[in-house]
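Here is this case:
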Amino acid sequence: MGVGFIREKIEIKFLILYIAARVLEPLPLEGMQELTMCDDGIDYFAFSECLNDLVRTEHLRLTEQQTYCITPKGLKNSAICETSLPYSVRVRTDKNVAVYNQKLLRRSQVRSSVSPRPNGTFTVDLSLDDDLDNVMHLQLMVAGEEMARDLADRFQKNPEQLYSGLITALFRMEEQK
């Protein structure tokens, strides 16, 4: 294990607020822990204690969905204290938060769900958005739940391939006339 730059609990609190001020949506405990444990000087027990202190002092709020979001008080104090964090920790945290935010954005742009139909079949609902609007919304009926879940999972991994394939197939149909 390397040497950490974060040594004091107040610095851990600054880091947690720094992260909470930069994520696109409230973080579950696992996400907050993953982003906060970017420095070798932070251990889980100190992190947990600092996180609870920030909720108790109303810098963070624990939502009904068990996610942590920053409060106006937390935003104000984060802005004041962020330069107290070591530069290397801020750079690493910014990189990690950018990756995390990209995952959140991707999750919001690519959606799939499976729902049963009264006749025993299943509907697979697939939706792809870009930064401005919905690009594609497709509903498929399939015979079995396993197949429906498999299609939904495959779509999540590469929705652009399905979109491109559909466009290509539709243009081929027009050319064959």
In short: The first strand starts at residue 27 and ends at 28. The chain has two domains: 9-108, 117-175. Strands lie at 27-28, 60-62, 67-70, 110-116, 122-129, 134-142.
